[in-house]
Design goal:
mainly beta, 52% strand, 4-stranded antiparallel β-sheet
Length: 126
């Protein structure tokens, strides 16, 4: 049974940083694409970042709104994926979810991911 557990959320002032972690179990972690999504109150869940296996390399992709500020990384030995968030803005406030896809490739579409964590709240004050 695949389980994803996020941690690291919290309250931070605008301009600050947070690092989210997602610990995975129940799947050979290194073989599967991982993504981060977020959902703000009253809004749909949106793609934030993903790490996929393409052309024999792990590659990362970001939403335009976070590119240059957020970094997704993974430690396959620890079965953990991270989201380093810098220069946070109030509009980054949301519940952040990590997700695992059933293959090494996935786009930013949420329906391509088959397992999800419970989410962690990130609140950025102005």
């Amino acid at each position: 049974q695949v389980q994803l557990v996020e941690s690291g959320g919290g309250l931070v002032q605008a301009g600050g940083s947070l690092r989210l972690s997602c610990a995975a179990s129940g799947r050979t972690f290194r073989d599967y694409a991982m993504g981060w999504f977020r959902q703000a109150p009253g809004k749909e869940r949106e793609f934030v970042a993903r790490a996929v296996f393409s052309w024999s390399h792990w590659r990362t992709y970001y939403a335009d709104s976070v590119r240059g500020r957020f970094t997704i990384s993974r430690d396959n030995a620890k079965n953990t994926v991270y989201l380093q968030m810098n220069s946070l803005k109030p509009e980054d406030t949301a519940v952040y979810y990590c997700a695992s896809a059933p293959t090494g490739l996935a786009t930013g579409e949420a329906n391509e991911y088959d397992h999800w964590g419970q989410g962690t709240q990130v609140t950025v004050s102005s």
